[in-house]
Structure formats: C-alpha cells, structure tokens
Design a protein that fits this description.
Number of helices: 6
CATH class of the largest domain: Alpha Beta
Number of strands: 4
Shape: elongated
Radius of gyration: 21 Å
Largest sheet: 4 strands, antiparallel
Order of helices and strands: EHEEHHEHHH
Structural class: alpha+beta
C-alpha cells in the first residue's frame, strides 16, 4: 500500500516523527514486511509512505486497527490531503531492496515475466520430458519449479538487471 500525504508547511519534522510512529505500530502486526518513506523533491509535493504486508488480510487488519486510527487522529493537523494506492500480485516480483518507487507499468512486468517463464518452461520441459512422467505429474513438477525459480532466483535478478528500463519515466510526445 502506498500512501501519499501533503504535509502542512513547516510541519515536516513532525510528519517524519508521525510516520516513524506509524511504522513502529505497523511492525507489531502480523504479516508486516516493511515500510519506507519517500520525501518530496520539492516543497509542497506529497510525501509517499509504502507499507508492505504478506497478505491483503494482514493489511486490512492493520488498516482497521484501533492503533492506526488513534495515530491518524493525532496527526490530523499535519496532513492536508491523503491518497492511497494498493498493489498486489506481480508487483512483488519487481520489488527491489531499498527501492520504494511505484511498480513498473503492467506491460513491462508482463514482458519481463513472460520472458522468464518462457525460458524456464522450455529448459525444464527439455529436462523433464525424457523422464516419461505421466502428464499431470510432469506439469506439476514444471509448475512448482517455474514458480519457485521465478520467485526466488529469476525475477529478483531480472528486476535488478532491467531496473533502468522497468522504472524509466514514460516518454513525453
């Protein structure tokens, strides 16, 4: 979940303390995976805070908690406006350490995922086919291997290798 907040002028230090308190509170909830803050490039632009949870249910538990509500109430005078953006699914394959930027465009995620899955499918089918396993078992072995390799080996490396292209700003006409 990414939260963009416009901070009241002159209250930036207070907002940072508030954001730290919010992160500490969130870290006590099940499924909390981390948080990060992006300070604006210019005065008056929104501050972005990213919260990562293991599941939508864990995120909802945090969002609906009394602890979060109390912190938000106390900080009402710090923030002029708030917008929230939630992501799930493929975006997690493109999470890079120390990078809290929004996920790349979906079409770029599709292209990179397709390339990784295609190569793995091709190689694994060449390896598994000679074993003459029954089709359901062969498909199961390949599906498990592709999913595991994509999650823990291929995508972290592809996302890092292609980060300049994946996260490049769109070209203006």
């Amino acid at each position: 979940m990414t939260v963009a907040r416009r901070v009241a002028p002159g209250r930036e230090a207070d907002f940072e303390e508030f954001s730290d308190a919010l992160t500490r509170a969130a870290s006590a909830f099940p499924g909390f995976l981390g948080a990060g803050m992006l300070r604006p490039g210019h005065v008056g632009e929104p501050w972005h805070v990213v919260f990562r949870f293991a599941s939508i249910a864990d995120l909802r538990h945090w969002e609906e908690s009394a602890a979060r509500a109390a912190l938000l109430d106390r900080a009402e005078d710090l923030v002029h406006s708030t917008s929230v953006h939630r992501v799930s699914g493929l975006e997690t394959w493109f999470a890079l350490p120390s990078r809290t930027a929004p996920a790349p465009p979906r079409w770029k995620m599709f292209v990179v995922s397709l390339a990784g899955i295609y190569v793995l499918q091709l190689v694994l089918n060449l390896v598994v086919t000679p074993l003459a396993l029954p089709l359901p078992l062969r498909v199961g072995v390949v599906a498990v291997a592709v999913t595991a390799l994509m999650t823990w080996l291929v995508m972290p490396r592809l996302a890092l290798l292609l980060q300049d292209w994946l996260y490049s700003p769109p070209r203006r006409a």
